[in-house]
Amino acid sequence: MSHHDPMKLPPLDPADPASLDDLLTEEEKAIRSAVRQLLDASVEPHIAEWFENGSIPDIRGLTRELGSLGVLGMHLEGYGCAGMSATEYGVACLEIEATDSGLRSLVSVQGSLAMFAIWRWGSEEQKQEWLPRMAAGEAIGCFGLTEPDAGSDPASMTTYARRDGDDWILNGRKMWISNAPYADIAVVWARTDDGIRGFLVPAGTPGFSAPEIKHKMSLRASATGELVLDDVRLPASAVLPEVRSLKGPLSCLNEARYGIVWGALGAARSSIEAARSYAADRLQFGKPISAFQLTQQKLADMSLEYIKGYLLALHLGRRKDAGLLRPEQVSIGKLNNVRESLEICRTARTILGANGISLEYPVIRHQNNLESVLTYEGTVEMHTLVLGQVLTGESAFR
Q1: pLDDT in tens, 80-120
Q2: Is 286 exposed, middle or buried (0-12, 13-18, 19+ CB in 10 A)?
Q3: Residues 271 and 161 in one domain
Q4: Catalytic residue among 129, 147, 340, 377, which?
Q5: Do residue 313 and residue 368 come from a single domain?
Q6: In which domain, by residue range, is 37 found?
Q7: If we measure between CA atoms, which residue out of 173, 171, 109, 105 comes closest to residue 142?
Q8: Catalytic residue flag (residue 52)
Q9: Sign of the CA dihedral 43, 46, 48, 50?
Q10: What is the pLDDT of residues 303-338, one digit of tens each?
Q11: Is the CB of residue 119 less than 8 Å from the CB of residue 65?
Q12: End position of a domain, from candidates 222, 244, 266
């Protein structure tokens, strides 16, 4: 039996009390550092202003920077994509969302929705035409599934594509589409006489427009739009050939949800750090508020939920890399990690008091952003019922 001298144990880092860092490989840590470096230089100084103004001024410059770093479609193989592991992609999502959920949304929609749809279901010609430019951040994509009247129930979509000779004619509306206002290519899902199919609709196609949705109080640093399709004529080469069912879009959503399992933790980590540092500096009743029991309880609970969420994300990442991850398990991660991260942000806000509602600190921005993340890519209710069905064998929503 070996007896280790407790004095020789490594010191604890208050920013990582459970030593979660030891679970990552050197390569995963290197990717994290590279992403953090880029964001600290190019985004952190401006993100509060972009959120307040509701736009990113040089969006294409930013996507090119993200492309040169390899984070656009980074878990895809070939066609100029980085071919990173799922866990490496997750670690990158966490760093990006620690800066802002809107920025992680841009990366998720580009890589896990638009690029993944083309990569998984597209023709060789479609892949060659779009993926290298999208991986480089030269072309921006969006993903049109949600409609004004079809959210959690995508099978009830009304967007319709009919044959006209060799061409297709599309009519319909999509709603709440991230990246839409500046996208070069939209992946649009529509009903046809033989199932739900995906279409590649380039910006500027006659009858196609993507008006921006204004007045939102969440994800303000991410552009959101509608997709309007009025008799949009597309050639036969525009259809994704490899899928004719809801399996197409749902497979893409599963990829994006996986990134969110990691990403939401970034917003939580940023808020915990803001609260911890504020509590140490803020003096009331002659001592820092970090010395009060109630503040310590808040910090301890926030830290615990973060640790558990991180362990879950890492477990799902390792399963995904082993080819063993089921969609229901992604639902477990999405449900838990976004819900707990939002609660962490709300608790951090109380530690900052009135300063918690100021954009001088990241907390209210993360909290508002996570309200969207809680709903998109499957609501709390849907993921709850997915897990409920696993536990009972009964479907509660069909």
Answers
A1: 999 999 999 999 999 999 999 999 999 999 999 999 999 99
A2: exposed
A3: no
A4: 377
A5: yes
A6: 20-135
A7: 109
A8: no
A9: negative
A10: 999 999 999 999 999 999 999 999 999 999 999 999
A11: no
A12: 244
